[in-house]
């Protein structure tokens, strides 16, 4: 360790404070706003889901199954689970509407036939898990 001689008239604490402030200014990064700004409260989104949105929902459930989470612990009936899709995928839907879409239409797996280019391995795993 090298000993730095003191300069007359300069306080070490003020130098340390300046270094700390400079370090903090370099380390602070402005956080980007998430996709939550796209969903406006009290504004009705398009009620019709597209094939791409349905495919994203199916792939989300498929990834949960691939992680080894059993069907009983998937927690697909909570909006909190579906908010993760909104956060990481760019779907302009809130968690509750995605949960309703899954429970009413997609859980039956009838929509898989209508989606073009649906991966067959994903279809097989979903049919094994949900029994259709």
Q: Can you characterise this structure?
A:
This protein is mainly alpha-helical and 132 residues long. 49% of the residues lie in helices and 0% in strands. The protein contains five helices and no strands. It has helices at 12-27, 51-66, 79-88, 95-106, 120-130. Helix 2 packs across helix 5 (120-130) and helix 3 (79-88) crosses helix 4. The longest helix has 16 residues, at 12-27. It is elongated and about 70 Å long. 10% of the residues are buried. Residues 27-33 have low confidence and may be disordered.
Main structural class: mainly alpha
Which shape, going by the Cα principal axes? elongated
Q: What assembly state would you assign to the polypeptide chains in this entry?
A: single chain
Contiguous helical run count: 5
Order of helices and strands: HHHHH
Q: Work out the helicity level.
A: 40-55%
Mean pLDDT: 78
Strand segment tally:
0
Q: List low-confidence stretches.
A: 27-33
CA(first)-CA(last) distance: 70 Å
Radius of gyration: 25 Å
Largest sheet data: none
Strand content: under 5%
